[in-house]
Amino acid sequence: MTAGEQPTQEPAEVAPGTSLVTSDPAVLRALAHPLRVEILAVLDDLREATATEIAERVGESPSNCSFHLRQLEKAGYIERAPQRGTAKPWRPKHVHRNLAPDADDPASVRSSAALSALYVQREAARVVDYLQSVPETPEWTDVVTINLSSFWATPDEMQQLATSIAQLTAHLPGRESDPSKRPPGSRRGYLFATLNPDPRTPPTPEA
Which keywords appear in this protein's UniProt record, sorted alphabetically (predicted)? Predict the structure, then answer.
């Protein structure tokens, strides 16, 4: 997909309200661009922002950001926020996004994989930047974890692991949107986890 390509169809699977659930290849491809991933992350962080404010965060021109914002709007990821004087901010259209592919649709799988690769690259770069930054105080240094492990599991067992990982922060609800729920001394944290089968390893044969 080129930087300027638009979705080939209207994102009919975009659900109104707080969640976006879609496996539509066109909707996935619309986000599969490094700058669009970054722009959407900025909007998730700030809740709303103008093209100029976003440009300052991502190091791009406002006009370039405006182009990509319009593509994200067409795909259903963002929308216009109420105007602030002469400023015309944008905001995310959903609080949560489930962009898992349709396993029976090769185009959906390819599009989801391309988008996922961009998120992995972005998060890996963020972790590297953090590790190369000024050291934290001891109480925060002790919580930084880099954990690698290998194991043998069936698809059902891996699915159970994926569900468990997704629920790791479920006991901390509401703190992102409501500052009053954040305990004194708390800071924003990031959880970056990957789970995948080894493509080089054949399945264990039936007994």
Answer: DNA-binding, Transcription, Transcription regulation
